[in-house]
Design goal:
The protein is of the alpha+beta class. The protein is built from 13 helices and 37 strands. Strands 7, 8, 9, 10, 13, 14, 16, 17, 21 and 22 form a 10-stranded antiparallel sheet that branches. A 7-stranded parallel sheet has the order 28-27-26-25-24-23-29. A 6-stranded antiparallel sheet has the order 30-31-32-37-34-35. A hairpin with a 3-residue loop joins strand 30 and strand 31. The chain is globular. The chain binds 1-deoxynojirimycin and calcium ion (CA). Calcium ion (CA) binds next to loops.
Amino acid sequence: MKNIMSLLLLATAMEMAAVSITSPNGAFLLNVDVNAEGTPVYSLDYKGKPVIKSSRLGIVTKETDFTKGFHIAGTDTATVDRSWEPVWGEYSTVRDHFRELTVDLKAEHPERALTVRFRLFDDGLGFRYEMPVQNGSNYLTVTDEITEFNYTDNHKLYAIPGDYDTDEYLWSETTFSGLEDALKNYHRHSEAQRAEGLTVQTPLLIKTTDGVYINAHEAALDGYPAMLLDVDPATYSMKSHLVPDRLGVSAYLQMPFNTPWRTLIASDDARDILSSQLVLNLNEPCKIEDTSWIKPMKFMGVWWEMFTGNQKTWAYSDDHLAKPGVTDYSKLTPNGRHPANTENVKRYIDFAAANGIDGVLVEGWNEGWEDWASYRKNRQFLFDKPYPDFDLPALRDYAKEKGVKLIMHHETAANAADYELQLDRAFQFMKDNNYDAVKTGYVGAIIPRSEHHTSQWMVDHARHVIERAADYQIMVDSHEAPRPTGLCRTYPNWLAQESARGGEFESMGGNPPSHTCILPFTRLKGGPMDYTPGLFETRMSYYNEGKDSQAGTTLARQLALYMTMPSPMQMACDLPENYERFPDAFQFIKDVPVDWSDSRYLEAEPNRYITVARRDKHSDDWYVGAITDENARVAEIDLSFLPDGKYEAKIYEDAPDAHWKDNPQAYRIRTVKVKPGQKLRQPLAPGGGAAIQIRKL
Ligand code: NOJ
Ligand code: CA
């Protein structure tokens, strides 16, 4: 009798097991089940074909195993269709439309409970673990997450290595079977900073052998470490690899806890990957009540001068310090190569004011650079101690009078612990001196020393800084912070992040033209990047005869980047004197908006080309950006997106003989009449691009 009862119970449990839902448009089918070991599994089909084969789910903690012995105790489904208005971005309204499946899992001996919440959108899947209050321990030490993504074939992968500390790499276009060789070509920072084995970072892009594009990433990373992916090329499978601290612990959790969402954006049309808002949709709505102080901006910087190779320094002196704040700077010898000085900053302010550029970033303004730059002894900066040649009160008043905002720089040298201690003082100091925006930086190994740039502690640190900044109404552009996962929806004062190999590498070997044809498919799915476009002098030998490196771009392409690399905090990175050499091309940077009401991806193929049209949030003007890799190309620009009317298009394009390598500054500007529905055939030079401003007549 007892046996029959338990057989019956087992049968009910098994019947309850398999559940499935489809996406609102029916393109995706999700199946969720529990396997013979009681491990939850899921699979995903797209247009009738498997994309993800049966893949396991679960979390391993030191205290309890959340991977086995489960049965489905209950399920729930819902359909949600709503929309929201971002403070800034690519669209003025974002539709959030999905079917939701909640699967409650229970296990006995010991008692455990785990919920997995799935959201199936027309453009992909998101799911997360929800760990309710347990009957046992409620403080859990996570050592592993076993989430699998079992693919179906030897697909193409666009990948960078799973480094715990940096993402400033060029992308490899490879396959599962080629990955091991591809990753051998990377020089990683140090052994201590690398994940062992075959590990890649997210956002990762996959192109299946039958032409489906998949972006794998995460959304709403908070209170948990970043996820890398361990790859098994033999079985085409991937498994989550949580960034640990140096004690091997990935996360210290208190129940109840919700993990970040694991995301798969998928489509057989590459343009859908670029237009997808899935990652933002999975983040919490804006937590800042009054957002009127959050203002998208263009800025210049006392910055590129230090990268060009002409010996300019962030440090005021070449002498060494006893300690910042203790050393008497009046006794140090100025090195004469320090551009963050009052006179030079005024020059930038004047130029910005004359050209309608909103802000000026100044790096190297504060005490601490002397020894850090050479990694001698200090890993501390003082965020309220300007150098003696940086007259802050005078510059504050001068900038105000000229209607330009100074942008603060907080390089922490990765001493994040010390930054937290100084944070309130630093932000108050900014407000006292009329600063509204800060660029933060974390170059080096993180202090406290058991942490990595993308471990739980640093993820928490980044959110803490953003929340404190919001308290002071400060906007943030963070460098070397954990890769973005759409938290800028919740905290729209987080205007931009670096978190990838930026334009500054043009002075350190160069970025191939394909680099900006892959970033929008990968890194940008988490949020805007401070890529620093606008480089007009692309030959490093111009500054320093000894340098032969050459930026992988034409001048016209740099203008196109303002549309293909959208960011509400967009730099015009070059020196004022270089913009003065090309005033007609600079006119585009003066005109281009940084906030959009609509975006249409017209053409796209990862690592090859992107053509996008965007509508200015504050006018009826449209802007088109088209870029190509190292191959020349003719972009097909279908103007069907234009509403009825007559328009004039001002085209900034590569000259017929332009080439990124030996003729990058050959460009032309022409104005033509265009009408809705017309198709423009726009030639792009090797490594080139075109930027078009379309105005209603
Ligand atoms: C690295 C940042 O990415 C760069 O933009 C900055 O100038 C340097 N650190 C110095 O802080
Ligand atoms: Ca950097």
